[in-house]
Amino acid sequence: MRRLISLAALIVVLGLSGCSEPPKPGHGVYMLIDTSGTYADELEKAAQIISAILARLEPGDSFAVARIDTGSFSERDIIAKVTFDDRPSIANQQKRRFQETINEFVRSVRPAAFTDITGGILQAVEFLDEKDPGQKTILVFSDLAEDLEEGYIREGIPLNLVDYDVVALNVTKLRSDNVDPREYLLRLEDWQRRVELGGGRWRVINDLDSLERVISG
């Protein structure tokens, strides 16, 4: 009898080990938009990107858009956030309201004095980890030049980005980049290093016609 029980237990264990959990459903997208200096002039393009993303997201997906400003590790910088209803008609209404909120923000935003990209990414991770979708994407619409106000500490803070896709969009070149292109290349390399050190996957997409690849994965 003991042998039979042990054999049955072994069969159960082997059966459980052979059954992998199904992938989690849904896609969570968190988009950070730079509002500092002259980059505020690019926000109309950001609104167009958001419209394209809304068109591709499906019921059950989550989407949030937040500004990058002086101190971005804060929920107050989230401009709009939503998890789309399973009913397509309700989800479409949510998308229209989301786009209206973004358009109003673009019309009224004032340029930020500083650029806390790290804080924005930390806030994005907090949001998406809470939603816990099957696919997690952080979009960074910025020139990637972080400029912190005195007293803000971001150096040495790890970015936990396991299972995350981090995509830099519309990485415009600064005037200094034209003088020394190495500054631009080093900026991209530094962010790639930080993302991959945190376990994430890094991409740069400046050709916005390729936006479909960002959402389809």
Q: In summary, what is this structure?
A:
The protein is of the alpha/beta class. It has helices at residues 2-17, 43-56, 88-108, 117-131, 175-179, 181-197, 211-216; strands at 27-34, 62-68, 78-83, 135-141, 164-169, 201-205. The chain contains seven helices and six strands, in the order αβαββααββααβα.
Could you say which structural class the secondary elements and strand pairing correspond to? alpha/beta
**Based on CA inertia axes, which overall geometry fits?**
globular
Cα gyration radius (Å): 21 Å
Q: What low-confidence regions span 5 or more consecutive residues with pLDDT below 50?
A: 3-17
Walk across the major sheet and give the strand order: 3-2-1-4-5-6
Describe this structure in words.
- The chain has 217 residues and is of the alpha/beta class.
- It is 43% helix and 18% strand.
- The protein contains 7 helices and 6 strands.
- A 6-stranded mixed sheet has the order 3-2-1-4-5-6, with helices on both faces.
- Helix 2 links the parallel strand 1 and strand 2.
- The chain is globular, with a radius of gyration of 21 Å.
- The protein starts with a helix and ends with a helix.
- The relative contact order is 0.16.
Task: Please render the helix and strand layout as text.
Blueprint (H helix, E strand, L loop, with lengths): L1 H16 L9 E8 L8 H14 L5 E7 L9 E6 L4 H21 L8 H15 L3 E7 L22 E6 L5 H5 L1 H17 L3 E5 L5 H6 L1
Parallel strand pairs: 1-2, 1-4, 4-5, 5-6
Antiparallel strand pairs: 2-3
Helix pairs in contact: 2-3
